[in-house]
Structure formats: C-alpha cells, structure tokens
Automatic annotation (TrEMBL):
Annotated signal sequence range: 1-17
Alphabetic keyword roster: Signal
Protein's organism: Nicotiana tabacum (Common tobacco)
Segments of this protein annotated with the region Disordered: 247-310
Source superkingdom: Eukaryota
PANTHER family documented for this protein: PROTEIN STRICTOSIDINE SYNTHASE-LIKE 9-LIKE, STRICTOSIDINE SYNTHASE-RELATED
The protein's name in its UniProt record: Protein STRICTOSIDINE SYNTHASE-LIKE 9-like
Biased composition (Low complexity): 267-284
Length: 310
C-alpha cells in the first residue's frame, strides 16, 4: 500500500478572483507502506510540508531528491522496527496516532494532537514530542483531533470529538495568566472535524450533523465561529457532499473577506463509515478511516494541499 500527498496549487494573484482557475495537483510520494496522512503544516521558513501519518510519525518533506523523513513521534513506546508502515489498530492505540499539526512561529515549536496522548509539542529539531495536556480533571480527552494556532494571541484551538461528548472545540493557552491551561471554547450542534483560523480572526469548522432515524443520514455543514465561540454562520453543504463526512473546511482569501465559506475548492469529504477511536489508552478500536482526503494548510504562496491514499 502506497501513501501519496497530493499538492493542489494556484496563483496567489487569483486568490481574490470570484472564479477559481483549473486546479493543479502535484503528488508527493510518502515512504513505502505509509498510509493515513491526516494534516499538514509548514514552518516559519516555508519548509515542509510536515504531515501526520497512521503509524505514529510526523514526517517532513525535504524536497524531490530526498522525499519525506522522520521528524517527530508522540509515544515513548514506539519503535521504528515495530511500527514503521504499520496500520495495526492494536499498535496505534499505544504507539501513538498523531492527527492535527500546527506551528507556533514565535517559538518554532510544532504542536500535535494525538488520539491517545492529547496535546503535545516538539521543538524545531523534532524528536519525541512532550505531552502538554491529556485531559481535564483526570478525565482524558475523548479524541483530540485537528488543531490550529492563533499566532497573535498565543492560543491553540483543537477539536475534542469522542463517542459521547464530540461536539466541542477546546482552547489551550500558550502564554499569559492562563498559560498551560485548557478550557471549552465552543459547543457545536454537530460533530466537528478540523478547524482553520481566517484572516478576520474567527474560525471555520467542518461539522457533521447526523439525523437520527432508522437509517441515519449525515449532513455536511460548514460553520463560522467568532472569537467568543459563537456560531455566526452555518452553511449546509449536503447538495455538494451528500451523505458524507466533511473532513476539513478551508477558504480562499476572497471568501474570507466576503464573510462566506467555500464549497468545492474549500472542502474535502470522507466516507460516512468512519468510526471514532476510544478514549486514551482504552482497548483498541478501528482507527480513523484512511480513505479520508483532507485539505491542508495554506502556505505563503497560496498552495493547497490535499492528503489522500493511493
């Protein structure tokens, strides 16, 4: 099985156009047997992309001549011999499964969410990430998923979406009187999966609404959340993404300025058969669906990255 990182590129001068140009893709080959790239990030110098994969690693792209190299891991129990290239759910539970990644440019640290280890950070040289917080009042996060870093405020926003309480966005403070503490930022009406800060300072979140009936129906919804945690805009994307899980919401600069959210160019979707892993260190359940395509971070050159599996 071969993993592929697909790069979608269009010119920054066209980011303000009401009509998007034809999309262009560039494939970045992941290491042999590596699957499940979930999120991407670039450091302050534009190096990368960095991406989290299913076998417990965060990889860094070093250019076409080198490809991807190991950058960070989230579990002290992980070994390369046992885990590299694996998709064994029994190993993923204890050996780490990083999902969201994002840099805090002021320090150069990379912040990582892991389904079992919560929120972690690692320095610019990589290595074993340090666990920052794994839960609240002794209760582990159900499923620490996507994250985004507020570069100005020094705050990390990440998704906590477990089997029961899976409608929350949490806020982790990097500095100030609340430094190294976490709190609930917003409670949503559906199941959030991935979050992105806009140029206006608020947040776009992909949310899935499940209509409870004999055969559950899933509605893809994009929501805009302001700095106070209030939902200020909701857009039903069922017509564009029928009966599917919306995985990440991205917007172009034009869409952000107009206060709207994107459609085809801005969101990727996934199969509705996805199952959510159990809380930290619990018996293994099926990991995150590896067929999920995800739109990644926006680079200074306005590149768009779509992560998928061959």
């Amino acid at each position: 099985m071969i993993g592929i990182l697909i790069v979608l590129i269009f010119s920054s001068s066209l980011a303000y156009s009401s009509q998007l140009p034809p999309l262009q893709f560039k494939k970045l080959q992941l290491p042999q047997q590596t699957v499940g790239p979930d999120s991407t990030a670039f450091d302050l110098k534009g190096n990368g992309p960095y991406t989290s994969v299913a076998d417990g690693r965060v990889l860094k792209y070093q250019g076409p001549n080198i490809g991807f190299i190991d950058f960070a891991t989230t579990s002290p129990l992980r070994t390369k011999e046992e885990c590299d290239g694996t998709n064994d759910p029994n190993l993923l539970i204890t050996r780490g499964r990083p999902l969201g990644v994002g840099f805090y440019y002021k320090t150069g640290d990379l912040y990582i969410t892991d389904i079992n280890y919560g929120l972690l950070s690692v320095g610019s040289n990589g290595g074993l990430a340090t666990q920052l917080v794994s839960g609240i009042d002794g209760v582990p996060f159900a499923f620490a998923d996507a994250l985004d870093v507020d570069q100005i405020g020094g705050v990390i926003y990440f998704i906590d979406s477990g089997l029961i309480l899976r409608t929350r966005i949490r806020r982790f403070w990097l500095k100030g009187p609340k430094a190294n503490s976490t709190e609930i930022f917003a409670n949503l009406t559906g199941h959030p999966d991935n979050i992105k800060r806009t140029i206006l300072g608020d947040y776009c979140v992909a949310v899935n609404i499940v209509k409870q009936q004999q055969t559950p129906t899933i509605f893809a919804l994009a929501q805009r959340v302001d700095v106070l945690g209030n939902v200020v805009l909701s857009l039903n994307l069922t017509a564009q993404y029928p009966n599917s899980f919306s995985e990440k919401k991205m917007t172009t600069s034009t869409e952000q300025q107009n206060g709207s959210v994107g459609t085809t160019a801005g969101m990727a979707t996934a199969s509705s058969s996805r199952t959510t892993p159990a809380p930290a260190m619990a018996p293994a359940e099926k990991p995150k669906n590896e067929d999920i395509p995800v739109l990644g971070e926006e680079t200074p050159e306005n590149e768009r990255f779509v992560i998928t599996k061959a």
